[in-house]
Write a structure and sequence with these properties.
Elements: H1 2-20, H2 25-40, H3 45-48, H4 50-76, H5 81-84, H6 87-102, H7 107-127, H8 145-162, H9 167-176, H10 181-206, E1 218-219, E2 222-223, H11 224-241, H12 250-270
Antiparallel strand pairs: 1-2
Length: 271
């Protein structure tokens, strides 16, 4: 039953990766955190490390999700190179710092930071102009270098620290530069790859400092069994949801994006 539940979570993560650029972190982290804490409790080593394991496994799943979704979006013509570079390079640099910091922070700090990050983003989308309404694609403007550098470093550091891929910052940022939701969500996937790789490597390396593995199926902080099940579900979700993207009206797409962020914030607060 546990792995069926994780498989369904993986399916949802694949759907959100394609439609919203989430990469899977906003589904995988709350689900895996709640599952581990319920199964092991705070007094067990694995239960105490539940948030780190959830984030680490999420970053690993995001590598697969982001690459698979990027391939789908490239075929559909949703990727625009002038918006990806040099932002991707700065995100990669920030991700190395964020991943290093995350392995040295407590699980409870990461959890509260995750929720604060979501809350600020939701308010930003609702209160600032440009996200829900959007602008015509013809008015899209690539990021100037200073904004790409500063924004990319912050996005990479925060996303790798929280294991969420950075889509919650890249999608609103690109949306406000005039891109429709379909393209903004599409480009969040290739921009997630450097964050996911940096986070996974950092959490694998962090295992060297532990006196013993948390469990035989865990490498560093990455739950390999959960990763396999989540990935199988996510690939199915990516395949099923890809044809839906061009059929969603732009404004509805933006509103559902914000509603999903609210649902994830509520799930983490109740976990």
């Amino acid at each position: 039953m546990l792995y069926l539940f994780l498989g369904l979570a993986g399916l949802a993560s694949g759907v959100t990766a394609v439609l919203f650029g989430f990469g899977g972190g906003f589904v995988v982290v709350p689900v895996l955190y709640a599952t581990l804490t319920a199964a092991h409790g705070a007094n067990d080593a694995l239960g105490a490390a539940a948030m780190h394991v959830a984030v680490a496994t999420s970053t690993c799943v995001m590598i697969v999700n982001a690459l698979a979704a990027t391939r789908r979006h490239r075929r559909a013509g949703n990727l625009r190179r002038e918006f990806l570079w040099p932002l991707a390079g700065f995100i990669a640099a920030g991700a190395l710092l964020g991943a290093w910091l995350a392995t040295r922070a407590s699980g409870e700090l990461v959890r509260w930071a995750f929720m604060a990050y979501l809350g600020i983003t939701i308010l930003d989308c609702l209160l600032r102009r440009g996200f829900l309404q959007g602008e015509p694609a013809a008015g899209a403007r690539p990021l100037p270098l200073p904004e790409a550098a500063g924004g990319g470093l912050v996005i990479g550091a925060v996303a790798a620290f929280l294991g969420v891929g950075g889509s919650v910052m890249t999608v609103p940022l690109l949306r406000r530069r005039g891109l429709p939701m379909a393209q903004a969500a599409a480009m969040a996937n290739p921009l997630t790859v450097p964050v996911a790789v940096a986070g996974t490597l950092a959490y694998l390396a962090a295992g060297r400092g532990m006196p013993a593995p948390l469990a035989p199926w865990i490498a560093g902080y990455v739950d390999l069994l959960a990763f396999a099940v989540l990935t199988a579900g996510s690939l199915a979700g990516i395949r099923l949801s890809a044809p839906l993207l061009p059929r969603i009206p732009d404004r509805l797409h933006a509103r559902v994006y914000v509603a999903l962020l609210c649902a994830v914030l509520l799930a983490m607060a109740l976990a």
